[in-house]
Amino acid sequence: MRMYDIIMKKRNGGELSKEAIDFFIEGYTKGEIPDYQVSALMMAIYFQKMTKAETHALTMAMAHSGDMLDLSAIKGIKVDKHSTGGVGDKISLALTPMVATCGIPVAKMSGRGLGHTGGTIDKLESFPGFSTSISTDQFIENVNRIGIAIMGQTADLAPADKKLYALRDVTATVDNMSLIASSIMSKKLAAGADAIVLDVKTGSGAFMKKEEDALALAHEMVDIGNAAGRRTIAVISDMDQPLGRAVGNALEVKEAIATLQGQGPEDFVELCLTLGSQMLLAGGKAQTTEEARQKLEAVIADGSALKKLASFVEAQGGDSAAVYDPELLPKATIIQPVPAPQSGFVQQIACDEIGICSLLLGGGRETKESEIDLSVGLILEKKVGDPVEKGEPLAFLHGNDSRKLEAAEKRFLAAYRISEEKPEKRSGIIKHII
Ligand code: URA
């Protein structure tokens, strides 16, 4: 078999056999097939798409490209959670301590920033000293001892996704349904949880802009998970504007901490409660959604979820003092307002463009090797439906370089649509639960 023939077959719209998919994943994982050929194949898949059978074969090949974690040493029903990626999506930072405090063992594998979206691993690295490069033994021990462990992709678990994820990030090949489904589900299957709750985003800040595409992606992933014997649930949530108000690694960590202190933004809290309820139901820790919500609200109110976050950060080498004093997190040297160019109401926000503003400030990768600046990002003061007076700040940009700030401000202003009429009230953040 030759990689050249596989690329050509897909470029011409053909269906790849399981053998061809296994060949390319094995060869790429071992370093025998170079990035440039895989980039070409990713672009061919992007344009020609994959059938259901190809997507399932790709997922299983990627899941089996490394070890399949055995979590049987952890008592209880292990429930994992994963988002398809959004802007200001800091859900895992607040949600994992909440559900762990309610008794769900959380053994999670997370990713880094991808395209215009942020990644949990980058955000967690805002805690000085924090490391997600932990051994499998340490991972299992931490879940047993404190209830949460989050690891990055290693050479052992779904290494094919680790390589493909980094390559897609810099070759404009992220937003394809089969590539997203196989990337997420291969990690989830390899990480060994019994049940999986998926947060599938839709809207201008999501990879799936249209709700029908998000639904198709959700069904595809639920099918893959259930076929592999893992109970899989998907929540479709709105990503037509950033989640909460903070976008950028350390800024999002701060907002997650504020949420665990009972001061979270409404949309963010609602999504945490919805996803958390599904996790508690799947893990047998609640019988009804009402009971689950009450339990989750209680662990915020009594401060136990915040304490859990501190224990988790400490167990992975991080400075837990920053949980109680977020001023210890990385901080940008320049904070500047973006004044509204006119009065009216915020009609629309091009959410992916807001993610790109954060990247322009230094919060994302240009190439696979780029270092990111954890301190930069933005805090939104105005969201869709809010009234605004000319000159009032729409947001505060946090940066360390005035030229980057200038570019980000220009892009930010182009992403906001303000006009005189009051927009209709938006429907809530949750669209469907599958
Ligand atoms: N999250 C992932 O893990 N992979 C994708 O492709 C998109 C979001």
Radius of gyration: 21 Å
Order of neighbouring strands in the sheet with most strands: 1-4-5-13
Strand content: 5-15%
Number of strands: 13
Distance between the termini: 40 Å
Q: How would you describe the shape?
A: globular
Count of discrete alpha- or pi-helical segments spanning 4 or more residues:
17
Task: Please summarize the sheet with the most strands.
Answer: 4 strands, mixed
Residues in helix, % = 40-55%
Give average pLDDT, whole number.
94
Structural class: alpha/beta
Give the arrangement of secondary structure elements.
Blueprint: H1 3-11, H2 18-29, H3 35-48, H4 52-63, E1 79-83, H5 91-101, E2 106-109, H6 120-124, H7 136-146, E3 148-151, H8 159-169, H9 177-191, E4 195-202, H10 211-227, E5 231-238, E6 246-247, H11 249-260, H12 266-282, H13 289-301, H14 304-315, H15 321-324, E7 334-339, E8 344-349, H16 351-363, E9 377-380, E10 387-388, E11 393-399, H17 402-415, E12 416-419, E13 430-433
Parallel strand pairs: 1-4, 2-3, 4-5
Antiparallel strand pairs: 5-13, 6-9, 7-11, 8-10, 8-12, 9-11
Helix pairs in contact: 1-3, 2-4, 4-9, 5-11, 5-12, 5-14, 9-10, 12-13, 16-17
Uracil (URA) binds next to α9.
Offer a few descriptive terms.
434 residues, alpha/beta, four-stranded mixed sheet, four-stranded antiparallel sheet, 17 helices, 13 strands, 15% strand, globular, binds uracil
What can you see in these coordinates?
- β4 (195-202), α10 and β5 (231-238) form a beta-alpha-beta unit.
- The strands form 4 sheets. The chain has a 4-stranded mixed β-sheet with strand order 1-4-5-13, sandwiched between helices. Strands 6-9-11-7 form a 4-stranded antiparallel β-sheet, with helices on both faces.
- The protein contains 17 helices and 13 strands.
- It is an alpha/beta fold and 434 residues long.
- The radius of gyration is 21 Å and the shape is globular.
- α4 (52-63) packs parallel to α9.
- Uracil is lined by residues 84-85, 111, 114, 165, 174, 179-180, 183-184.
- The site of uracil has 10 residues, from α9.
